[in-house]
Design brief:
Neuraminidase; four-stranded antiparallel β-sheet; globular; mainly beta
Length: 355
C-alpha cells in the first residue's frame, strides 16, 4: 500500500495537467461586429396606441397546432398567433396565423371580418404574394420545422372585388432538420427563403445558396427595389421557450449580381424576425422591447423608434404599394397599419414642441 498512494497521486496529477492543457484559454479577440452597433441614444421616439394608428385589426383562431408558449426576454408568455403579412394591393393584405394553421385576406378599410380564410397544413412564420396576372397571385408560405415552404395559387373572382379563391400548388419538403422562417420574391421573380437555424442555416435566392458567418442566423430576406439589393435581418441567438439575453440583431446587404453579403449594422439587445424597406428606409420590429425601428437605408443608423400598446411582440411587416406599413403582433393576434409619413410628421411636431 505504501506504493499505491504515490502512484495514484501521480496519476491524478497527470490527468489534471492533461485536462488543463485540453481547456481552451478564454478568447481575447475583439467582437468583429462591435464597430457596427448603432446607438439608440439620439434616436427620436414616439409612443403610439391602438387609437392613433390608421387601422388596427384583430384576428383570433384556436391553437389548432397546439404550439407551446414562448418566453422572449422579459415579455412573458407569447403564443404563436399572427406571423407574416403581405400586401396584395393598396387595400388588401394576406396574413398567416401560425398556431391557427390559417391564411386570411383582409380589406384594411373594413377589417371586421376576413374576405377569405383557408386552412394550411403546417406552421408558418411568413407569407409573401407575387402578382402573376391582373387578378392572380402566387402565395409562398414558410414552413418552420414542418417544411421549407408551400406555394398557393390565389385568384380574385371576376366582377367581385371581395371574392377570392385559393388552392395549394405544391409543398417543398425539408431535406434536413432546418427551420424555414422568411420568404420573399426579388425583382427577377425568384423565391428567397431564409433558413434561420438547425442543421444547415442559409439563405436561398432561387437556386443560389448563401451562408452568413456565425453566429448570425437569417430570420428574413427581402429585395430592395430602390437600391437593387437583397437585405437580410439576422439574430445572434435563437429564441427558446425560456428567456434569454445578450441577443443582437444585424442587417446584411447583397447587391444584385454580387456574391458576398456585407454587414450594414448591428443593434444590441434587439430581436427582430422581419425586415422591409421603403422611401430609403429599412424597417425592423424589436420583439424584446415591443418596438418598431426606422433605420437609415444607407448607414444603418436608427432614425426613429416607435413603441406603444399597438405593438405586442411585433413579428412580421410589409410595405403596401402606397407606402403604408403593416405590422403583425404575435402577442395580441393583431395587425397595426401605419403611415410612415404621418409618423414622421408627428415626430417632427413632438420635436418642435420640445424646442
Amino acid at each position: 500500500m505504501t506504493y499505491v498512494i504515490p502512484i495514484l497521486l501521480i496519476t491524478v496529477t497527470a490527468i489534471a495537467a492533461f485536462m488543463t492543457l485540453k481547456k481552451k484559454p478564454p478568447s481575447t479577440a475583439a467582437d468583429p461586429y462591435t464597430a457596427y452597433i448603432q446607438s439608440e441614444a439620439d434616436a427620436p421616439s414616439l409612443v403610439l396606441n391602438e387609437a392613433n394608428v390608421e387601422t388596427y385589426l384583430v384576428w383570433k383562431e384556436p391553437n389548432r397546432a397546439a404550439t407551446p408558449p414562448l418566453h422572449i426576454g422579459q415579455s412573458g408568455e407569447r403564443y404563436s398567433t399572427l406571423t407574416g403579412v403581405s400586401w396584395l394591393d393598396a387595400n388588401t393584405c394576406i396574413i398567416a396565423h401560425r398556431s391557427g394553421l390559417m391564411l386570411a385576406i383582409f380589406d384594411v378599410n373594413d377589417p371586421r371580418q376576413p374576405l377569405l380564410k383557408s386552412r394550411i397544413d403546417h406552421l408558418s412564420d411568413d407569407v409573401v404574394a407575387k402578382e402573376t396576372g391582373k387578378e392572380s397571385w402566387e402565395i409562398a408560405v414558410s414552413g418552420c420545422w414542418d417544411c421549407a415552404y408551400s406555394l398557393y395559387k390565389l385568384t380574385r373572382e371576376n366582377g367581385n372585388q371581395n371574392g377570392f379563391a385559393i388552392e395549394l400548388v405544391n409543398t417543398r419538403a425539408h431535406n434536413e432538420r432546418t427551420f424555414s422562417h422568411g420568404v420573399a420574391y426579388d425583382a427577377e421573380g425568384r423565391l428567397c427563403v431564409s433558413m434561420s437555424t438547425g442543421e444547415r442555416p442559409r439563405i436561398e435566392i432561387g437556386s443560389e445558396v448563401h451562408e452568413l458567418p456565425k453566429p448570425w442566423g437569417a430570420r428574413d430576406v427581402i429585395y430592395d427595389d430602390a437600391k437593387r439589393r437583397h437585405l437580410a435581418v439576422a439574430v445572434s441567438a435563437d429564441p427558446k421557450r425560456s428567456a434569454y439575453d445578450k441577443v443582437k440583431t444585424s442587417i446584411w446587404t447583397k447587391g444584385l449580381g454580387e456574391k458576398e453579403w456585407k454587414i450594414l449594422s448591428v443593434y444590441d439587445n434587439v430581436h427582430s424576425d422581419a425586415i422591409c424597406s421603403g422611401d430609403g428606409r429599412i424597417w425592423i420590429p424589436d420583439q424584446l422591447g415591443n418596438r418598431l425601428f426606422a433605420v437609415n437605408g444607407a448607414t444603418g443608423a436608427i432614425e426613429a423608434i416607435f413603441s406603444g400598446d399597438c405593438f405586442n411582440f411585433p413579428h412580421g411587416l410589409d410595405v403596401s404599394p402606397d407606402g403604408k406599413l403593416a405590422i403583425t403582433n404575435y402577442g395580441s393576434s393583431s395587425v397595426a397599419i401605419v403611415d410612415p409619413n404621418v409618423l414622421f410628421n408627428e415626430l417632427k411636431g413632438v420635436g418642435e414642441g420640445r424646442a
